[in-house]
Amino acid sequence: MRDSGAVAEPTRRGWLIDAEELPSGLLAEVPSEAVYVIEHPRIPFISYPYEWCFGMLRDAALLHLDLQLYLLDHDISLSDAGAYNIQFVGSEPVFIDYLSFRRYRNGEFWRGHRQFCEQFLNPLLLDAYLGIPFNSWVRGNLTGITAIEMNRALPLHKKWSWRVISHVTLPAWLQQGALKGDKLRSLGNRSGRLPPAGYRGLLTQLRNWIEALRPKAADISTWGAYREISPYSETEEAAKHRFIADFIGKIRPGTLLDFGCNTGEYAEVALAAGARSVIGYDSDPGALAGAYGRAKSKRLNLLPLYLDAANPSPDQGWDQSERKGFKARASADAILALAFVHHPAIGGNIPLAQVVSWLVESAPRGVIEFVPKSDPTIRKMLEFREDIFFDYDEARFVAALKEHARIVGRERITVTGRCLFSFERERV
């Protein structure tokens, strides 16, 4: 494979991470039996499929299939089909697992089919067919959604599609038979041949199906229509843009975390003002879809990810070290937390002082927007619940911020009392 030149074109297209072969004796920690030592560029930020929006998982699936189709022309196949073999650099997916490349054996079946369905297809179907975001389910089971689970979740009328029968229903029957130890077990391990044209046809059919899938969960988005329901007048919005651009222009952060990124509007402002890259976080599927679409269409160095601040991604997997949690990865030069604080503080019942401390710990500098109870957004949140949030006011917010950082800028930007605060930790 190395000598065939097959990896040059996928690397040029950005499908495959670049790699350079190094002398085996260059690094002391390399075992003596190592055949090759390769070095690749560092991925700026590691993310996981349970943090991706629907469009990101779909694009990752399409990249995997496109790469497989290309490699088949060079008699190469992939030994597995895991979603964790793909990372995002900004809004661009890239395949990173060179160790899954192997020589294609004429007539072989696609041994990665089950894994592809569990980690790509079934999570996408959960959203596209049932309107259920896949994030929590995939985070709860790192191997994905099994065919048995997907088959049980689908309504009867969805099961009669020949595509669903081929990739969900029939595999579910085979897996159930294998668990029971009956004759169906032999069907799953049958010997036979799949001609190269059949292998290619299977991949192409899956590609066409997945490319046509659209999310239902985004249709019930709370904040997906953010631009249409913006609480700011044009003048107020311009003032907010200006405050953020001035802040970013002075510090020019390498990595910026944007908590509550919505559709990525202010991440784009930050990038234009001098931020090198932005990791955006939101818990709303429609907002994340908008942010990802913005990043793709404008080629922004913006990576929008799913985050419930009250329940962030934990350390998990084998020995709780296979997949790092949010806190272990969220290292940045600065943060934006615009109209964000009230979500964990009021929506999640987290004490205001703890929310402020958590934000300031995330980066040495940043901008936080405080939304008072007089604002229509907060009034709506409290419309059908008791106001038990006696600690939620601007004075207590300022006091909490001053406990951890120095306030270097402040501007009230709306008639309802919204205020922007820029801060700098005493020890940067």
Overview in brief:
By secondary structure, this protein is α/β, with parallel strands linked by helices. It has 16 helices and 13 strands.
Describe the structure.
The protein has 428 residues and is an alpha/beta fold. The protein has two domains: 8-217, no CATH class; 234-425, 3-Layer(aba) Sandwich (Rossmann fold), CATH 3.40.50.150. Helix content is 41%, strand content 14%. The chain is built from 16 helices and 13 strands. The chain has helices spanning 8-13, 54-72, 113-130, 135-140, 147-153, 162-180, 184-188, 196-212, 234-251, 265-273, 285-298, 326-329, 342-347, 352-362, 376-381, 394-404; strands spanning 20-22, 37-39, 76-78, 86-89, 92-95, 101-103, 255-259, 277-282, 302-306, 334-337, 365-370, 405-412, 419-425. The strands form four sheets. Strands 9-8-7-10-11-13-12 form a seven-stranded mixed β-sheet, sandwiched between helices. Helix 14 (352-362) packs parallel to helix 16 (394-404). Residues 184-190 have low confidence and may be disordered.
